């Protein structure tokens, strides 16, 4: 017998137990939940197996693809780096079909400061590989400073300046050096106190740190001389006397002062400091404004005057570069530093005739601008070809412009 389900909310279970209707609904929900849970476990197991298979496939895929990618990326990187290195190497060492223009002298290998001709220098081209392979380079710049002298010499990062031309070229020389990245001069040599050699030197002494300054040991009463002394004092420099026989190193080059042979002369040009620079088998001789008497004294002093390059004395004047001296030096090249249409007629016709007769190749700043020589210790290369004009300087005709009487 049972009670009415509607009124008493009770019923009889199969097993004789009695539960409330709410409990029955709860039980049914639990059973359904259990069924759902059972189905989910099966599905989860199936999904788990599929996921494991995918994971294994992925692991196999990336097990081999990741290293390959790394290797490929590395190879691409190496190719790019090699390409950039080769490009930089060619630009840095100027290894191309012809000499390249550009600012020079960086570390070991450079060629020229400026190239005036667009055609390669045939006689330099065949040695280009040797130049770029050598360990030390000496560069000599005969700066175009009008009717004056200024020569920059560099070797292995060390620098020397011989003279600084006229007063108006002081700032020009300063900028020339700065463009080359020069802020310090290891050696400064004033050959003598003529205004066209020392005029711009006060600017150089003030603007650069000058480690060693060689001053001729005589006194003169000129503004240029006083300006040099004032600059020396302002920078607390102590001048050194350029005694013949003095030697020092400039990078891998050796420098020797060989003149003047005497200070007992009234000719200030013959008081010029004379310098020989040795770089490997190459020699460069710088004579300031030395004239015949000093040249003869050097010959008589049994000096070894032989040199590959001679900076011609006194701007190519007829009072310098006598034939006997040129034969003693026996240079392959001569450089004349003089101004275009200068009032002295430099270089003189007789000097050019001697040079031509002795088959000496000539470079001229009045015709070619700055002349740059580069030595690798065996050969010498130039930024321009030798002059072939053999044209002497012409003194201006002072009578022109005068009214006739």
Explain this structure.
The protein is of the alpha/beta class and 405 residues long. The chain folds into 2 domains: 20-83; 122-382, Ribonuclease Z/Hydroxyacylglutathione hydrolase-like (Metallo-beta-lactamase, Chain A), CATH 3.60.15. It has 12 helices and 17 strands. The protein has helices spanning 5-8, 21-93, 122-125, 128-133, 170-179, 195-198, 201-207, 223-234, 292-300, 323-329, 349-357, 365-368, and strands at residues 10-12, 18-20, 138-142, 151-155, 158-162, 184-189, 209-214, 239-240, 247-250, 253-259, 274-279, 282-286, 309-311, 333-336, 361-364, 371-375, 380-382. The strands form 3 sheets. The chain has an 8-stranded mixed sheet with strand order 8-7-6-5-4-3-16-17, with helices on one face. α9 links the parallel β12 and β13 (309-311). The protein is elongated and about 130 Å long.
Order of helices and strands: HEEHHHEEEHEHHEHEEEEEHEHEHEHEE
CATH level-four homologous superfamily name of the largest domain = Ribonuclease Z/Hydroxyacylglutathione hydrolase-like
Morphology: elongated
How many domains? The number is 2
Query: Quick one: how many beta strands?
Result: 17
Spans with pLDDT under 50 lasting ≥5 residues?
A: 1-20, 92-134, 401-405
Count of discrete alpha- or pi-helical segments spanning 4 or more residues? 12
Question: Would you tell me which CATH topology of the largest domain applies?
Answer: Metallo-beta-lactamase, Chain A
Summing up helix and strand content along with how strands pair, one would put the structural category as: alpha/beta
Distance between the termini: 168 Å
Q: Mean of the pLDDT scores?
A: 79
């Amino acid at each position: 017998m049972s009670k009415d389900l509607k009124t008493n909310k009770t019923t009889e279970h199969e097993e004789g137990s009695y539960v409330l209707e709410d409990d029955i609904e709860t039980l049914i929900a639990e059973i359904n939940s259990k069924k759902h849970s059972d189905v989910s476990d099966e599905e989860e197991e199936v999904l788990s197996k599929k996921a494991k298979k995918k994971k294994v496939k992925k692991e196999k895929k990336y097990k081999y693809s990741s290293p390959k990618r790394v290797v490929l990326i590395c190879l691409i990187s190496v190719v790019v780096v090699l390409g950039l290195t080769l490009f930089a190497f060619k630009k840095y060492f100027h290894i191309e079909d012809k000499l390249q223009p550009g600012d020079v002298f960086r570390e070991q290998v450079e060629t020229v400061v400026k190239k005036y001709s667009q055609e390669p220098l045939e006689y330099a081209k065949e040695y280009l590989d040797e130049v770029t392979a050598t360990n030390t380079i000496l560069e000599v710049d005969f700066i175009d400073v009008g009717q004056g002298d200024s020569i920059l010499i560099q070797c292995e990062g060390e620098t020397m300046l011989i003279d600084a031309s006229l007063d108006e070229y002081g700032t020009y020389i300063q900028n020339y050096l700065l463009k080359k990245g020069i802020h310090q001069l290891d050696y400064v040599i004033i050959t003598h106190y003529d205004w066209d050699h020392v005029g711009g030197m006060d600017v150089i002494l003030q603007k650069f740190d000058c480690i060693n300054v060689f001053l001729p040991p005589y006194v003169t009463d000129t503004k240029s001389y006083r300006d040099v002394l004032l600059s020396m004092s302002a920078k607390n420099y102590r001048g050194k006397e350029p005694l013949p026989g003095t030697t020092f190193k400039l990078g891998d080059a050796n420098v020797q002062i060989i003149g003047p042979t005497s200070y007992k002369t009234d000719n200030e040009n013959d008081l010029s400091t004379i310098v020989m620079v040795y770089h490997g088998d190459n020699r460069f001789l710088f004579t300031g404004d030395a004239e015949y008497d000093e040249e003869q004294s050097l010959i008589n002093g049994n000096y070894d005057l032989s040199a590959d390059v001679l900076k011609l004395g006194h701007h190519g004047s007829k009072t310098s570069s006598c034939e006997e001296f040129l034969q003693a030096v026996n240079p392959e090249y001569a450089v004349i530093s003089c101004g275009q249409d200068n009032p002295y007629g430099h270089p003189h016709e007789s000097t050019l005739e001697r040079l031509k007769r002795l088959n000496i190749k000539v470079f001229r700043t009045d015709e070619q601008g700055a002349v740059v020589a580069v030595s690798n210790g065996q050969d010498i290369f130039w930024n321009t070809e030798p002059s072939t004009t053999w044209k002497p300087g012409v003194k201006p005709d002072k009578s022109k412009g005068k009214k006739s009487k």
